[in-house]
Design goal:
homodimer, alpha+beta, Alpha-Beta Plaits, 2 domains, four-stranded antiparallel beta sheet, 38% helix, 20% strand, globular
């Protein structure tokens, strides 16, 4: 989950649900192979699939010619705004690194996974792959040099994500952003993002809630998502701490202190889409703490 | 000290040195009186002096007609960029509140002290008065509603401030700022201010240092301060964690982890001005923790 409220382009966090499963195996072939068991459309060409682009960037660094066979059971829909390409890129390098005896730490895998993001969207963003690899909230303070900061968060924090059945391309969603912002809005955004990370670290739910305002991307991008204002209002009225666009949309997420509130917020958000005749999927998840994990050993 | 690097307009901290002394006494007269023992020019008219403007705002809230006599021994020069008017406003309401039996907490005094800032600069900023009253680092997350957040900082943090003998009016220094910033710079500033508060709270000196970049105000305002780039370079070469403009200048401050580095940085900064034929005053101070204090009891 990237673009967390005022943390537009710099703050993301990891979810327990939805999560992709990837079977990663060493292969004796001379090319990587990709098998799709997802029911979602994926590029099977290893030159085009983000996962193998990311793995090749890692192998290149190692000077290794090892090839891998990747079987995808994706649950995060491409184009959902929930970091689908990031999950593939980060999961693939995590699995391949594991099978190679872990020459890299999860933190060191971030730049490789970013190569997958670059292949997917044209720019090597880290705000999805870094949380996917490290878990929790992650601040991408800077790209040059790359500075990835884990932000300790409260033990209890739940996320409701609603993915409506509409489609927005990440590239379009970036194009509609203005290239300048008013000084006043820049300062407001700075105040809120500083407040948000302070609230997370000091476990101040009041501050987290009051800081969850994005005055830069949300006012523009929310126009691309039908019913956005109503969905947000429904989440807040259900007791969520804050609500904003997930990634570049169309998914919308809300943060809540308690699981029952997260469930209630998710239902209220879904209901707005239902009334408008738009189908949606809802996921309720604690903020993930540990990032990727190995589900079964080889 | 306001405008702490990327915390332009939203982050300040309190210094032990320089500090003003104000003798606050209840008066039997029917107007406030102001006595200046500072050797610095101060308005003596209680309608124009920021301290009495601030006190009247507090008395108004209390419905009190009490008058005060204020004797100033100011050590913070007006126009220095070290929060001279804030020290007067905050100190005056602190002293008067104390003599009235402390009807308000220090936090509750912030809006009254802001009235003094409004009289001084035309806008009711809190980023100097709030640290002066509360001590430590203070984030002004929002003005509407006013949201003042104390940021826990490292136990060891030293500031070197150099005040060169040149004059810049706060109003001019705000006028030269552009009213818009690029989206890219706004995001960079957000990343750095989030990194800075995270570094302060988690006592991560590396992160504090790497986050001390202001891409919005400093590149414009530094043109008003002769030798600025050289002074900054000298501070960093002496080992300071970061260096930026104090308030709206012309003072320049540097933060250091150890006192001896702060002393060395201060000397190096002063030396640049000396070589350029510009006199300056240097102050070395630990970041103040407790804010205002009563020096002698009544």
């Amino acid at each position: 989950m990237a673009n967390v409220g005022p943390g537009f382009d710099i703050l993301g966090f990891a979810l327990n649900q939805p999560g992709d499963e990837i079977l990663v195996e060493k292969s004796g072939e001379n090319v990587h192979s990709i098998i799709n068991q997802s029911g979602l459309s994926l590029p099977l060409d290893p030159v085009k699939n983000v996962s193998t682009v990311a793995i090749d960037s890692m192998l290149n660094q190692l000077g290794s010619t090892q090839k891998f066979r990747l079987t995808f059971l994706k649950k995060i829909a491409p184009g959902s705004g929930i970091g689908s390409s990031a999950a593939s890129s980060a999961g693939a390098v995590y699995g391949a690194n594991h099978l190679l005896g872990s020459p890299f730490t999860n933190r060191e895998l971030v730049p490789f996974a970013m190569k997958g993001e670059e292949a997917a969207s044209g720019s090597a963003h880290a705000d999805n792959v870094a949380p996917a690899l490290l878990g929790g909230f992650v601040l991408v303070r800077s790209y040059d040099p790359l500075d990835i900061i884990s932000i300790p968060g409260p033990d209890q924090l739940y996320c409701s994500v609603v993915h409506p059945d509409i489609s927005i391309a990440t590239k379009d969603s970036r194009k509609i952003l203005k290239t300048t912002v008013s000084l006043e809005k820049a300062i407001t955004q700075c105040g809120n993002v500083a407040g948000l990370v302070t609230g997370l670290i000091t476990r101040d739910y009041r501050l987290i809630s009051d800081s969850m305002h994005d005055v830069i991307a949300e006012p523009v991008r929310s126009f691309l998502i039908p019913e956005y204002e109503k969905v947000k209002k429904a989440a807040l009225e259900a007791g969520a701490l804050g609500c904003s666009i997930s990634g570049s949309g169309p998914s919308i997420f809300a943060l809540s202190e308690h699981e029952d509130i997260a469930v209630r917020a998710g239902k209220a958000m879904e209901n707005i889409f239902t009334v408008a005749g738009i189908g949606s999927n809802v996921f309720i998840s604690q903020v993930n703490k540990q990032g990727m994990n190995v589900m079964t050993s080889e």
